[in-house]
Design a protein that fits this description.
Structural class of chain A: alpha/beta
Largest sheet of chain B: 8 strands, mixed
Strand content of chain A: 25-35%
Oligomer: heterodimer
Number of strands of chain A: 12
Order of helices and strands of chain B: EHEHEHHEHEEEEEEEEEEH
Number of strands of chain B: 14
Shape of chain B: globular
Order of helices and strands of chain A: EEEHEHHEHEHHEEEHEHEHEHH
Distance between the termini of chain A: 13 Å
Radius of gyration of chain A: 16 Å
Distance between the termini of chain B: 17 Å
Shape of chain A: globular
Number of helices of chain B: 6
Amino acid sequence: MLARRIIPCLDVRDGQVVKGRQFRDHEVVGDIIELAQCYRDEGADELVFYDITASSDGRTVSTEWVTRVARVLDIPFCVAGGIRSLDGARQILHGGADKISLNSPALENPALITELATEFGSQCVVVGIDSRQEAGDYFVKQYTGDPNKTQPTRWRTIDWAREAQKLGAGEVVLNCMNQDGMRQGYDLTQLKLVRAELGIPLVASGGAGRIAHFHDVFRLAGVDGALAASVFHKGIIKIPALKEQLIADGISIRP
Amino acid sequence: MLAIVDSGGANIASVRFALERLGVRSELTADPAVIRAAEHVILPGVGSAVEGMKRLQAKGLVDCVRGLTQPVLGVCLGMQLLFDNSEEGPTETLGLVPGTVALLPASPDITVPHMGWNTILTAREDGLLAGLGPDARFYFVHSYAAPVNAFTVASCDHGTPFTAIVQRNNFTGVQFHPERSGAAGARLLKNFVEGRG
């Protein structure tokens, strides 16, 4: 049976891993290669690297560190950040990344999703969605890497998720912005809503604080993967202990 | 020497790095003479079957790959291309293993692409799986899959059973990514290059 995935997310800025609170006040947490190796050894199922400054600064991630990561990692990893073209995506995939994740550029140019899926296959095209709850509904935000540049979009989250799948995305990562960095648990209501709309894998992001939150997001929201950053970076949750508990709870997990 | 067929697919770097970690020298090449002379050949590939076949045709490698007599390992799309044809396109593929590759059916509990770590069910003993127990998990990421047939070494189940490892004569294919499957994947690659497969 397919295992639910535990996915540490490493926000990268200027070649270092950083973490903020509700997308603000970033502090350096460590070196990319060291952290990648550490998570691999602890049993992470996959890693995501977000170059959080790339989209709002209008530049693409450098492929140099992608290749350094690919050399040491024997688990899959996804790279996100300012990928705006077929060539940009090709550089990262040829550099050794397994998947690319599009966020703001997919909103600027939705046809890019289809272009990338046609060229590389849907399985390596992930669409990241930054979603905020406002007035009883969920809406997509753009350029969230820099709080001063964050913008609203015309999309309701549910509509954009459905559209991304239609255009050829192979996976959606839903960042629930209200929960990000708060450690109060994943947004189960929102994730369940989006899960019911999609036939492709859905990864939950934002809000993990305790082991029980992972249990709930798999059991109650039915997501395929759960992404977290600060609880792993700060050692609040250790992956081996997390996996042991989830296995004991009867959830399909890679030991 | 191990030759990695440079068909322009996207997972070439990670296959090369996995071999590097095992201390195996490999060469990324589209030169038929180099490929024919290699001790082992890996046919990687990410993307669609149509694009994969187009790339092989454009580089004049279709007959070269079909005619190889040394151990060949197809990975992911590289494995799917070993079959007769694929519904993805649709397109005719290499025809080295009988069968048609088809889209995995999705259902409320089964998301497609099949993405993540899964276990496999061994259909027959094979050296490729030496040292790997029934609990070993491999990383899969694909939407199309090959049917289970007489050449299936191991199958996987994602809503429907499909071939995870196939072998006919000197041609072996794995639907998962050994280069991204941790210690289990490294062991499988080691078994292949050491001639256990």
